[in-house]
Amino acid sequence: MTIKQRTAVQDRAAQDAPPPRRANPVWAFLRNSWRQLTSMRTALVLLFLLAIAAIPGSVLPQRSVNIERVAGYFRAHPDLAPFLDRLGMFDVYASVWFAAVYLLLFTSLVGCVAPRLLEHFRALRSVPPDAPKRLDRLPQHAPAADQAGEPAAVAATVAESLRKRLWRARLREHEGGVWTVGAEKGYLKETGNLLFHVALLAVLIGVGFGAWYGWHGNRLLVEGKDRGFCNAVTQYDESKLGARVGPEDLPTFCLELERFSVTFQPTGQPKTFGATVLVDEDGKETTRDFRVNHPLRLSGATVSLIGHGYAPMLRYTDRFGRQQTKVVPFLPRDGMFTSEGVATFPDVNIDPKTDRRDENLQVGFEGVYLPTVGDDNRPTSVFPAENNPVLFLTAYRGNLGVDAGVPGSVYSLDRGQIATGKLKRVSGDGRPHELKPGQAWTLDDGTKLEFLGTKRFATLAVRDDPTLPVVLAGAVLGLLGLMASLYGRRRRVFFRMSPLAIEGAPGGRTVMEAGGLPRTDYPGFADEFRGVVKAARGDEGTA
Amino acid sequence: MAELSNQLMAITVLAYLAAMVCFAAEYAFGNRSHIGRAAARELVGAGGPPVTAREAWKDEAVTDRGALIGRIGVGVNALALALHLGTLVTRSVAADRMPWGNMYEFILSVSFVGSVVWLGVLSRRPAIRHLGLFVTLAMVVLLGANGLIAYTPVGPLVPALNSYWYVIHVSTIILASGILLFGAVPATLFLIKSGYDQGRTRFPYPLGRRVPAAETLERLTFRLHAFAFPLFTFGALIAGPLWAEASWGRYWGWDPKEVWAFISWIVYAGYLHARATPSVKRTTATWIALIGFATMLMNLFGVNLFFEGLHSYANAG
Ligand code: HEM
Question: Which of A13, A497, B153, B264 suits A90 as a labelling partner, its CA being 20 to 30 A distant?
């Protein structure tokens, strides 16, 4: 089609149609888009998009779930990972495209629910409609039957009986002494549906504000006095504050792990574990116990126990006889607590005469700790409790690379330094050295490492979700609304009472006809209708 | 006790298999039996109310060898259910706790619920007996895969699972999943049946010959899903996060199991939406329910096998 033709067609259309008063194309476009967006079909498509958009987050490791595994993925796929990262694939649930889908969905939801709320509000206040002319056309119908009493009186009894059954009923008088009753029930269905959708909004808003005003941090805490920590960003191993939370907003408290106790099943599965901590909240010290599933609730923070392990205590004696002791947490690698870690001593072998540190005389140890070594002496633990503990270590000397300014892992030595030969293995090429608690190991240069024993550590998740009550209330209300919506049934019944002229009938007689209209899919309506008609006729007791 | 449970499990699968053979035989006989075929046609054509259908089947049973075998199939199916229950009970006794501490037990429980729902619905609507072939096939596959892939020796609960929220969370999810999984059977048959009604003859549409009326199947599908959806909502999106908050400190963390529960929930919400939208065809809506079924299977088997997460029973296998 040429432009001219197209214009011609448009012109014709414009001529045929009544002259539009406000033919503002922008406005029309917006209105049309809005209608599209708030249609049920669009809602369906967006629901689907949301489901699909959620999938990559379960396939690829996520920073918010396990940052170590993201790093592992980067190592395993050095080409693909940066590309995926640019697409936000490692932060799916915080990515722009994920947000775009759910924000569109919720806009659609608002646009859909707001008018329905208004309409439902009106429906709630309006009276049930009058009976249609032909009741026998309705899906349910009770044929005319006569009955004692004037139509007005019968109608009043019918309405009464309906109201007793929680129908909303309306009496109307018509010409010729005819009375009708129109009744409706099941408003709860729409009410529930709207409640459900509004509650979804509440949940989203709650979650959103939670992300702004909440914060969390993880901290590995070793048993013992003077190993405690206070609630400050710098004291966490990893932490994240919401957009509206500053470091100074964190509540002040300090924790010290007094004791950590674990018991295991004979199979090695944990049976119980619990921690006793000394809590200092604004100068008030209390001793509190908490366990898995029973977190420590402080004001403005919840502390959960999410892991535990062993921290070997190592004492190093350098060339000049100076001693340094370190307690280094080793991270468990399997369910039997085969644990890996390093101990670094960068500030040793300092000549007391010159007081200068020789960077090439730094010392590091790397290895595994086995709480129970098996009979075959293999480097994996066979039981998680310390029945036969052994520490296998390899010693390195040289430049640890800790001054380079790049924060390295505290659980492994700098591979780069080892590769370039700046950090040399000094414990021979054979098996790592085996140490039992209390044993000492003299290195080739006469320095000495002693394995003093272990302490336990606990990993704590400290978190505050200020909007938790909103989210929970939204979820519960949503569920109630959902149930009302799914199980509620909207239906109407109508009665028509016409006078019957029979000579000599005291008090008059009435012909009563009834019809019923289920407004939603409702297989049991026929039974209910029969019951309602029976009750309206007044033979409830005899039925 | 644990040994006994394992043996019972094997016998249970065999019993479902036997029931399946009976249902298949009924299906085969039914094809040859003129009476059966005529009766089925009539029912189908009329799309009549279940009451007439029920009576028709009763009358027919006297003459129809196929129907007799079908009835035997129901009996064997009930026996299989009893054995299934026995497997669960002995397993619980052996472990001294509820039978849902790991993936193997979880699937055992979910399929049990599905089986109970099936026999429950069947007792109220004998007309749907022909679904039996598909239900028992699903059971054999599900339990067989469970025994082969997911088997875990009896063991105690890890402490994180020792919580009443956990019990509520898992039991409601088991119930909901069982019903949703069973709901896929009438959903599939509805699709087959509507294809058959439109005159399609390629496999699998001929299977639609002897199943109940499309409308009945569709309504059954909807009612099962409408019943299970709020239950699933409660179990997965309320009780689960409550437990997670107590256990891990956060109520929602996009752990793979959580992601897939979320996906299933969204898809099933999509099904309910689609069904409530007049412009969407019922067959389209039912396809969505089947996608929901696929996501549930993904959560039962896939997530446990492919991904590593916090849900500790996931990596106990
Ligand atoms: C945020 C995502 C949404 C979810 C999870 C959701 C979920 C649901 C569910 C589970 C139902 C079934 C309950 C019932 O049948 O009454 C439902 C019904 C309904 N939804 Fe949504 N919905 C969402 C968004 C929307 C949007 C955007 C619209 C507007 C276009 C909408 C309009 C409706 C309507 C009209 C019904 C009633 C259907 C009926 O007549 O039964 N929903 N929704």
Answer: B264
* Residue scoring higher pLDDT (A423 or B34): A423
**Nearest protein Cα to ligand 1, atom 4:** B269
Q: State pLDDT tens for residues A518-536.
A: 888 787 888 999 999 988 8
Could you give the angle at which helices B214-234 and B256-276 cross, rounded to 10 degrees? 140
* CA gap A192, A479 in Å, rounded: 9
Q: Which residue has the tokens 């999810």?
A: B173
Statement: residue B57 has pLDDT above 70? no
Q: What is the mean pLDDT of chain A?
A: 86
Residues 71-100 of A with CB under 8 A from B: 92-93
A191 lines ligand 1 (CB under 6 A): no
Could you tell me if A373 and A388 are in contact, meaning their C-beta atoms sit under 8 angstroms apart? Answer: yes
Check: CB of residue A110 under 8 Å from CB of residue A201: yes
Confirm if A459 and A306 have CB atoms less than 8 A apart: yes
Answer whether A188 contacts ligand 1 (Cβ < 6 A).
Answer: no
**Atom 8, ligand 1: residue with shortest CA distance:** B269
A201 in contact with ligand 1, CB cutoff 6 A: no
Least confident window among A327-331, B43-47, B175-179, B246-250: B43-47
B177 close to B300: Cβ distance less than 8 angstroms:
yes
Q: Which of B104, B100, B137, B92 is nearest to B118 (CA)?
A: B137
- Cβ distance B18 to B76 under 8 Å? yes
Confidence band of B55 (pLDDT split at 50, 70, 90): very low
ipTM over 0.85: no
Residue of chain A nearest B235, judged by CA positions = A479
